[in-house]
């Protein structure tokens, strides 16, 4: 995993309410965040800030998102996630053609955006990946290992991703639907009870008989409590 405070994110959107919402959410996750409301200032900010990820709206006054994306890709080693209210396939194709690394349609969930940011960092900035310690857990993405109280857990690939997701989002309730989206994938066609099966397996491996490590929040989901 990586330390979030190592990651710089530039938000570019001409809607102040969206900028404020995303900036607040990403700062709360620990990221360094800068914002811009139009294309020229976005390019200027990128030159000074050197972001790892740019969240870029398509429809803006002056330079649109497609032009900004092309200029950013010439200037920086940067991951660009484009946002648009349009659903036309042509826009998505054009965005990817000019260099965008991912594409999201408004409205979208913050959790989905966060998952895509994590994916882009893993894929494009592997040098930032290292061992992350959170409470009694140590997550080593390079070795695909998680240790709990210095004990290396024997985990399947899915168990590893699920426990990592819960630990990274510790002290926060995450629903089964959110877990399915972020661990199994957006097009997962199975049943939500698969989450219960994997939670049970993790509790056994953590020796969590009393459900004090992975708590069930009835009617809401699961939460890992760490002080």
TrEMBL record:
It comes from the Bacteria. The modification 4-aspartylphosphate is found at residue 57. GO terms for molecular function: phosphorelay response regulator activity; transcription cis-regulatory region binding. GO terms for cellular component: cytosol; protein-DNA complex. Residues 129-226 bind DNA. Residues 129-226 form the OmpR/PhoB-type domain. Signal peptide: none annotated. PROSITE patterns: OMPR_PHOB, RESPONSE_REGULATORY. The keyword Transcription applies. It holds the Pfam family Response_reg. One of its GO terms (biological process) is regulation of DNA-templated transcription. Keywords: DNA-binding, Phosphoprotein, Transcription, Transcription regulation, Two-component regulatory system. InterPro entries: CheY-like_superfamily, OmpR/PhoB-type_DNA-bd, Sig_transdc_resp-reg_receiver, WalR-like, WH-like_DNA-bd_sf. Residues 8-121 form the Response regulatory domain. This is Response regulator transcription factor. It comes from Paenibacillus cremeus.
